[in-house]
Amino acid sequence: MADILNALAVFGNFVAVPGIAYGSQLALGALGITLIYAVLRFANFAHGDTMAFGTMAAILGTWGLQAAGIGLGPLPTALLALPLGIAATAGLVLLTDRYIYRYHRARRSTPVTFVILSIGVMFVLNGLVRFVIGPDDQRFADGERFIIRARDFEALTGLEEGLTIRTTQLLTLVVAVAVVAALFWFLRRTRTGKAMRAFSDNEDLALLSGVDPDRVVRVTWLIAAALATVAGVLYGLDKSFKPFTYFQLLLPMFAAAIVGGIGHPVGAIAGGFVIAFSELGLTYAYKRVAGYLLPEPWAPEGLMQLLGTDYKFAISFIILVVVLLVRPTGLFRGQVI
Amino acid sequence: MSFLSAEAMTGGYGGADILCGCALAVERGEIAVIVGPNGAGKSTAMKAVFGMLALREGRVTLDGDDITRLKPQERVARGMGFVPQTRNVFTGMTVEENLEMGAYLRDDDPAETMAQVFALFPVLAEKRGQRAGELSGGQRQQVAVGRALMTRPSLLMLDEPTAGVSPKVMDELFDRILEIRATGIAVLMVEQNARQALEIADRGYVLVQGTNRHTDTGAALLADPDVRRSFLGG
Known about the structure:
The structure holds two protein chains of two kinds. Chain A is mostly helical. Chain A has 14 helices and two strands. Chain A has one domain (13-249). Chain A is globular. Chain B is an alpha/beta fold. Chain B contains ten helices and ten strands. The chains are: A mainly alpha, B alpha/beta.
């Protein structure tokens, strides 16, 4: 019995708990991508760098607050700086929309044109973020680091293996649940949210019903900016902030949106967790888990690791390709790209 | 002048004119039906009346006001309800949400109008929580008409409301349209099923190549041997 619990503790510590946190972060990122796709009908390649921009703004705000001696006690100061980050990102995406996308929307340019435009925006943001904050790793998490330390867990349960839960992991889950609940309430219950869904569902009929397309587009960008910033700050708190890492997050986020069915918000969340657990589950070395579960003579000699951690991006990519080949509408029947 | 009056409408989608001096009129509490062969410009005439096609010549008036230059959305606010032939419901939204979207421009409480729509189409009340995309063709058409009625229009425009539904459902839809007429709404519709549509029509327009070929009451057109031979199959 103790062996099974020990195995569970190891698994929880290295796969389940980090997977839930990472999955929540991917889900928030994928939600932004999926909403832009549902309303503006293009795949926004600048989303990863929008996240980086928002996180950067929040980090600058955090530093300012820290210098002024303002903090949240056990919680990271970055939470206080989050509204500032969201505001800055909202301003940025509205500017890019006003000066880059709007012209092509009026001309009814093809989706490919929008994708190329968003790649351009991506490169500019890429440079902008590095120019302001530098290309290096930034750690900005402060406050209480752990909710449960491995040693406390061992003392508490008497197990040999410890389970660590960091503050940022629980915070990620709580914030993600709150943000997703607010988003769904907005989409299902409010007039503007219904107008957004109607516009995404059938643009012509929405126009006939009197929906203002400019307003729908604006609100969509604002929500995407908020989601990107929240996702970016949570990821940065959980791990660290590095502009290049955020650019790389684009692939798992897109994979999550497409696995779930692009344009489908519930799908984006499910997709986020599918991708996160596939990455962690396939690159984790199960030697210690197996050591507890199997009788001693069967204990594995190797690491029992399916893929090296360097291959984690390949996992998102393979899932992406397989989904597009086998079920292009994704798990929740989104639109076909 | 009639409640809705379109005079000498001429225009097309950039190239050659599709409409050449087409004229239409409907009074409140009347049904006007546009029939004619394929490519006669029936749907185009509807679009022109609704402002989805820029006219080169001619004008459209509603209740005496010139609305020729208004955008479709502005015409909705003026009391015109339009049901397109295809893609006329929000498939991913529930029946109730579809109706709510119809009332999007209204500031007052649309609950009463929704109750009237449910009274007119009882099946929609049953399926109010179901997605419109999961309904049958006839039920979808009811959602589409219901959505347009939610603005409380004085003129309801239907582009082939019975396209792709069974004869039984078509009869039912026509019955409902008669009920809508009885509330004092002007109804303008394009119909593929010319004979049945003319039976309920107060006015009929036979359109050929964007021009009025015959204009009369529905009954008179049905009795006209020339119309029967050329457009109603004998």
